[in-house]
Specification:
The structure is a homooctamer of 218-residue chains. Chain A has seven helices and nine strands. With 218 residues, the first copy, chain A, is of the alpha/beta class. In chain A, strands 6-5-7-8-9 form a five-stranded parallel sheet, with helices on both faces. In chain A, strands 1-2-4-3 form a four-stranded mixed sheet. In chain A, helix 3 packs parallel to helix 7. The radius of gyration of chain A is 18 Å and the shape is globular. The interface between A and B is medium-sized, with 35 and 35 residues. The structure holds adenosine monophosphate (4 copies) and magnesium ion (MG) (8 copies).
Chain lengths: 218, 218, 218, 218, 218, 218, 218, 218
């Protein structure tokens, strides 16, 4: 039967004790614990407590996955494209990627292609579309123009992910989010600023639904 | 080859002359013209000019579709669920529905189930999910709580569509949009306030991608 | 004669000297001093100065109550229900609980029941309502949808308490507050973001007014 | 068994047909239909269709109550105080009053006592409190200072109702709402700008809960 | 000696009498009167009073220029490129064009090239740049992404002009303005929403300064 | 001849070197240097450099006045009333007081009289008005209701000074400022949040103008 | 004994009946009724009812003063300077002027001197200051820069009055108000956008206080 | 052939490794690396790694330029005027200056001339204009009035650069930016708050375009 989204522990507002307890619960129940925005002061303790477990830790996004012994991540065949505009958008992009990967999808990344240099975008996008990707995540801060450009050039659904990059009026992702909400291009939906987790889950759900059909076909 | 989104003429800021010219262009090119937010003062003229054509007109949303002789709308097999919270949300919901239907999807509607009466929601939602729907659109104004509730209960991707219903602080859809962006539930992406067209296109793209795979399976 | 609200010292913007002086004044006058948002740098000094007194200190909310020797907290028979959505909402919920308890009410807590998992909510809510509770406090951040859901299911007045949980647009409690102000459900009033003290006092006043009548009945 | 809030038809965003259908439904089911913000263009038709029924219509707030033959409004003994700051606040105040009265409460009104003339307020407030009122609604626009002043002088819960009176920055009720949310006085909760219906229901629920106990005492 | 900007009468907030008086003053002083945002109720009267004069009137932008007998508009040789995203942006674009033309510049227009169809943009932009243009005005509403794209592709200064096109959050030009302020592309400055006059003057000043040098060269 | 406002060095955004240089300049020119918002890291150095000079330093507001040898502050006879709502408002109130005193005015303080306890206000206000005060400064955060109440009870001009006290929506002085701008009471003008310096100068200018006339009378 | 501010009937949100009743009350009590923002639909009726009375009506601001027979406006000797930036600011400026005049002050007007042409300002301002004015009102919309410029050049207190002139971001007076609140110049306090009445009262109170001293001198 | 803008590494959101890698790339490619907003923790490492290279470092703005051996900065003959209002605006002003200088322009600075002391401005502005400057950058925080004043007095294009100086409502540059967007003066375009880099590039592009023509003339 088709599976939904994994539970993710939002670390930012939790104490180390709460994180440990919730992780233990998830490991016991599902064999895997995903923790986003791990607080700096909790990291060492969590690593220590689960030292015996296999782990995946992404520094930029402070996201961690812990696997119980014997856990095997299934591969669904879902295909997610992931495009990000600038170096500063990478942590949020990787947060989304990790979630989609934990949901069993294959994630193809194109990083560092802003609207200020559109020529660098055309070739990689073409090859991405040729891979017959199921959904594209576009991660961008500042002017937030990239998702509109991508959605205008692509026949698949696009999820825009604004990041809190940028200062002054409309900074911290506000202009990026608003610009995406106001898009002229068809087929673009959005999640909140810096919400890589939500973007990853939505993309994972779309891709897995296609993959499920695809898979059950053969 | 996989098809994307239909072009839609945004009527609100156009003169009757501009609407007629663009509609004629689309009819000649694709056999169909879709006009959203038809201005009151343009309606009669458009009806007159295209009197010989088959038409579909939805009063509440002021959306019109005109078909050239011989045009047949394909059926893709995509399945879209459409849930709306209150009577006042119906125009936006129908705007989305018409678009998804024009993209070849089957749209199953559940109207008038707000969070103030959750018991009325449970049964119809269960039967919707049993239809193995590909994506759910949830249209809601005021508190915008319904999409979060639905996304928490459903294993398929949900697109939230805030409507400009509500007065006072956070009125005109602002609270609804923000609440959806801040959702605690997994798998919810959003479009802008009252953007039924954008929601319909995104849902149509998701459902059609699944359907395409489904279809090519048999 | 019916009693109103206790005075509460708002610690956040005060020096240790100001807190000590005000606490001494209240202890002399009423036999009890309540201090909310105790600044980290004042805690030890306050504990030391009042080392001889009975004390109650809630770490998460940094709220302290100091009792003069011989002080007995009356029990009014007021009944307050307290529901909170997530782990991060507990400090504000406990702030409200302590106030209502200091006002003599019995507080029944239901924690960790968000809209993303409504099924977990139904049973505890039913038993809460069966206790013939006088008023319900609902504490929630992010989408702020829970108070609307509760108010739709309950025949007693509900006070919504938004918390500053959540990031991005509408974060820090803004979406939660706006969504509560825009509620579709009847019988929901709100206090400001993170204002556990104000919520506790309002709930305490409502419950005590009912209790006073109830009590004087027998 | 204790009763909750009456259903109210929000007329503003409905067509005449929708209003008539919903009113007929409520009359058949409960013997009474309450319509708020009746659209100007629906009024005559509604009056005509229900010409045989007893009616109550409040011009300033455009609120109407229609009673089926034989309907008798119960009297609960709930006591609601209603204070409003200026002439322009009266429509919202009356909207709240009508709801509380339909819920069976006795409403005692004090109108036209702004903070710009506090001396006019003291005497009426004293006599209101001597009536042993259960809850006070305070309706105010512009600076929204009155609810804070009242809450500071009263031992009963206060519900603040900001109105959309005032122009310039903070106008249309924004300053009033924010000032109430920021109150220094204990025991003040709020509803949204111009939400007389919500205020009336909350006050009615509080007063009726007290009254229920009071009543069952004798 | 180098000339600055022409005086423009802002019609919107003026009475017909004020407009007539100011126009007469300018005609007497400089031989030309430019009136922007002519109020509907003033148009006929102004046309009548100056019936003997040569006139230029742009309906979409409601801008009028009146020339005293014998007035000859100088040609400076300044070259302004003008690009607009959608049909609805044309009135603001034409307002800017008229001002730049009245300042003696040649304006080359590229209309209707949004980011949703970038391929339509590349060719006209190339030929514009080949004309060795001095400055480019880019007029866009909704997502406001076009000016960033243009500035990224062009070696000349770009002035972004947001228009009040778009609804929902960030609508009426807000997202467009913020996105332009947050641009990732170099060499983009902006004027306020719908400020075609200001944009035209700034572009005219830049182009004329270049042209002055160019001209005095030969 | 009538004197205006003293120059004040805004310390917050300056380096120690800049503060020292500007102070030396003012001491040489006028015999006095006033520094507001002295940065923590500059304080010791400034004290050391001017160790030989007479000084006045107010800790709460971080304001300092340095007098050159032989400087005598004139007394103008201007009379300023200064009322503040809570303990947390005192730094801003003292900032205003120091400025008005440096301008030669006598400042009469009434501290700690919020709208939550109006009875405590009436007596001190009466005696203040009996001193035939020229202008009243009212300093308040949170709900900002106090200036409206004072202006309603006083026949002299009132300057409202919102402070950045308060959290949640409308916090950091926003509700206070907006409520003052929306005042129902006559004769209230405002300065920006926390702008004690601006308030003190305005009050000093008003009082000194009256005093000048008063003085030249005798 | 010193007199405070006249009562002013705010017409905008009142019915004709309410206006007439309040005007009659004031005429009976004080011999004068001042009505601001007279609604268009009330004007004729008010003129008719008080046809026998002396009247003063200012069209641009829709302000009216009605004098009972035998009423004589006292002259206090207060001196108010009134500067406005553009033609569109005149209605608000005249509203302020009428109030100050009704309070007995002499008002000296300088109109149409914006910051875009500072040279036109210097001479009139010099002669205004030579009249030994008591206070200056500066009325400005759009950029709101004029009050800061005036306050920087004048030794008397300045009251800034932002007007709702201007479109786009910061339009309707928002930028003007914020710029005044952020002034770099000493001695500038503000009232809300378009609040000519509040500005006139504050200026009248300041000037009359000076004048009272001046007058009692001789 | 005419050259556009230099690439600038935005240091603020980058790691030391990312900065080093990008700088090395630019040095290899163009012979120069420009880094703005160098993070404090990266400075020493960057200095060390490029110890052999010629460098320019501006402390206030934390901007650095590194030159490869043999690199010579060309001089274009472009002339940029740079005016700033207060001491606190200097870092942003210098950021703009460095960019324009790196683009080959001559930058003439006028610092510390706010609207609070206009007389100090007139003389330096006159001499600036006599230098036949191509474009003026005006850097100002708080009220943001200076760019409007300058644009009103100058016949060349002006770029306004708001800075994040100022506290309270409209603080952190918001009032400054809005006031510039609402300018009454002709020929003023803006960049975002604190965007010295963007301002410098735009001014450099304008000046270089003029200079190119000027240069190719001789
Ligand atoms: N009601 C609507 N809301 C949002 N987008 C729309 C709407 N109607 C049309 N569109 C989109 O706007 C674009 C058409 O704009 P236009 O060229 O101005 O007709 C197309 O990309 C449509 O998909
Ligand atoms: N954490 C809190 N949030 C909101 N109000 C509070 C809080 N703590 C104390 N108060 C209220 O603030 C007032 C005390 O303020 P103060 O006199 O400054 O200590 C009392 O009316 C309290 O009820
Ligand atoms: N549509 C417009 N938008 C922005 N500024 C304008 C517009 N029309 C005229 N102006 C400017 O506004 C000023 C004229 O204002 P006024 O004196 O009210 O006619 C001049 O500086 C014009 O350049
Ligand atoms: N705390 C303060 N708040 C507001 N304005 C201030 C403050 N301190 C000094 N000022 C004003 O800011 C200007 C001095 O700015 P600066 O040249 O940066 O020292 C003078 O006009 C002062 O009156
Ligand atoms: Mg697409
Ligand atoms: Mg779900
Ligand atoms: Mg309920
Ligand atoms: Mg109270
Ligand atoms: Mg470019
Ligand atoms: Mg007063
Ligand atoms: Mg001054
Ligand atoms: Mg100029």
């Amino acid at each position: 039967r088709r599976k939904g989204a994994p539970e993710v522990i939002f670390g930012e507002t939790k104490t180390t004790e709460q994180i440990l307890a919730m992780a233990q619960g998830l490991l016991a129940g599902t064999g895997r614990a995903i923790i986003s925005r791990m607080p700096a002061q909790s990291l060492e303790m969590v690593k220590e407590v689960f030292a015996q477990y296999e782990m995946r830790y992404q520094e930029a996004s402070r996201m961690m996955v812990i696997y119980a012994p014997g856990y095997t991540r299934r591969s669904t065949g879902g295909r997610v494209g992931l495009i990000s505009a600038g170096t500063s958008d990478i942590p949020v992009a990787e947060e989304a990627a990790m979630i989609a990967e934990e949901m069993g999808c294959k994630v193809t990344r194109i990083f560092d292609v802003g609207v200020a240099g559109l020529h660098r975008l055309i070739e990689p996008l073409r090859s991405l579309l040729e891979e017959d990707i199921d959904v594209i995540l576009v991660v961008a801060g500042m002017d937030g123009a990239l998702p509109s450009v991508i959605a205008g050039l692509s026949p698949v659904p696009v999820i825009g992910v604004p990041t809190s990059v940028g200062y002054g009026m409309g900074g911290k992702g506000v202009a990026a989010l608003l610009s995406m909400l106001q898009t002229c291009a068809p087929g673009l939906a959005v999640v909140n600023i810096d919400n890589g987790v939500g973007a990853g889950i939505t993309a994972g759900m779309i891709a897995n639904r296609v993959a499920h059909t695809r898979g059950s076909r053969s």
